[in-house]
């Protein structure tokens, strides 16, 4: 047998527990990777099936490039008459709420499924057959005006069966009732969700492909429902066998307005880049990188301990002829064996657990569990790359051992303070790389992202690992006296425990930092991103929406409603209107606040902005409250959010032009009187029904109420913005306002205008509630609760890494006790009690926890801060322009840090007890033999 293998086997027999613990930690680390990567592979295996289910029995779809445009009759005829087209079905689809015509009988179970946040679509079609399989009933007769077919999702939400009826309410308040004659299979909910992605990458855009959650109606009834001319915005095309969508390229290329083809591969690409798939894919990459680092630190700590403990042995071997290359191979073989055990054991153990889970919950794995190539390759990469990275320094250290060192003990800490100074300088330079790449350097986004991934992130981890010795010294000098006092030990005994073996302490602190630091980073990043959308306290608390509208003179009656403070109640005029010229460049690069429309809100400026305690407590970025109020009183002025300055460079005195939805040929112009900070305005418009026509909006623009009502034809009272009395809840206020609503709806003029209905516009329909009362405080609480749960869920992978790494802590503490047996024997011989020795080992664990906590907190805050810039400006431009203040959620971090100290304590418990039980003579004999 090769000498290297003989030496390795002999060492393994001597350190069986350490080998098993390290191998077990590697198996757990690789098992986590297998678990996550196999989950992504399970999602990816359904892409083709989901694509076929979404397109139905058609081959390709023709859609306008601009969602608000329509397809001309010339193009429709050209596509229908094309020799390679078997059939072409032009349709018009738009979003419109509808309801079940009759209430369900008392006691009948109601579905808990809703119609989605965006609402259902209505599809006007002349097709004589369904695009999707029929589940019940028959397909509609397009020559009638009384029939409808609904998708299975609509049927579940409204508890519909063939023979029931649904009702629509048009813009002119007419109620149209259609009989449901059939139910068709609906594509999976996640598919249409993936199709409604904006260019910036967030959900909630316009699905220009075929609708899924929908009611299919005869096309001839569409003008009656929408109040505008029937216009095609989608052509469903079935090509002849063996033909591809390219045959329509010339026809589509010459069309005006501009059109594009939506092919099968385009839809599959959308689905594969959807939030579910993208989230699973990113999680797989993240876990792979995390596992590589975890494996590296686990093996590094074990190899370093082995090199340190066998330094004299290696020196003797070098003295009797062992070459440096053989020493290097000895360390590398140990690393590779750990890698093989981790890879094979992780695959086997993870596969068994996945099979058990799949058998217990088959709904989670409809296609069964698959061990794909990606799972095998990525787990192997984690194991072997981690092993190779971990072996570099121990190999270098082992090959530097001189035969002369067999005669003297090997130093366990740097000989001079220069090493600490050099390590600190290098660490600070490395730590600065990532922030510079994210915030300071101007680079193309793709190049910036690659550099951050390949250079910035590793530099940050390595930088904080090199900073660990300085933190160790700081904890020893500053906190060891306090720990000694708490443990009732002499300060001198506690002070030198960590730095006695600096390499070992640094390795375990860096290992713990990997899990705890990333947990801190996810919490800091998540809560900071949540803070960017949290509604601020610059507005009154409650927004009331009367979807049907009330006469304006009813506002005086509202003042008398119990629970309303008349001095802090405003009637507001609301319209969601497009901006002329697209000043925010939404067509090229949209984001949460880079849109082509705004939510214009007309208010009584004197009541809203004046006084010592104004209803709107705005912070002015440009201009002042007094100057802006004077201009607003003059008329034709407005206040805009600070994003207009950051994204479009607009200043006070500039003009913005808006296009009224009901008079698109008569734009109106307002001059900017002030630029103000409106934190969370995006979420305010989302939750209160202020977004009237479009799914997204650039933000809130405030202007005088009288002008807004006149410019946008808003003669009715539809919104209130108020501060209710302190003892009144939103539900109580809603009940109190019902008497006002009972007066009856006011007529509201048609808002769709001659421009037609695009697929992203909502028209008419029944609202989700006849009276909507939204408390912004409740919105904030809901966001904290739901957002906090989502952010907390992101921390489970780092915490699992922390648990995996904790197995290495046991090795480290055991090695620390073994290395100091002579010292412990002397202490016991001169009078230190057994329990005192136990407390000494526990104190070391506490200080390791303090070092890891200090490193992790600094690492996590810095990483979270750089991730804010990474998400906002590099990896996901959807968040561009959103103001995200750095938030450190101390209450959310407590669990991770307490867990770290618990793990350190548990890891030290057995080594502490075993050393305390040993007799002084046995400690002296064992310690002498090892040195």
UniProtKB/TrEMBL annotation:
ABC3 transporter permease C-terminal domain location: 286-403, 798-919
Pfam families on file: FtsX (PF02687), MacB_PCD (PF12704)
GO molecular function: transmembrane transporter activity
Positions of region (Disordered): 105-127
UniProt xrefs under InterPro entries: ABC3_permease_C, MacB_PCD, Macrolide_Exporter_MacB
Keyword annotations from UniProtKB, A to Z: Cell membrane, Membrane, Transmembrane, Transmembrane helix
Coiled-coil regions listed in the entry: none
Transmembrane feature ranges: 20-40, 284-307, 327-354, 374-398, 419-441, 447-473, 789-810, 894-913
Compartments it resides in: Cell membrane
Membrane topology: Multi-pass membrane protein
GO CC terms of this entry: plasma membrane
Domain MacB-like periplasmic core: 20-249
Family: Belongs to the ABC-4 integral membrane protein family.
Protein name as it appears in the record: ABC transporter permease
Species for this entry: Blastopirellula marina
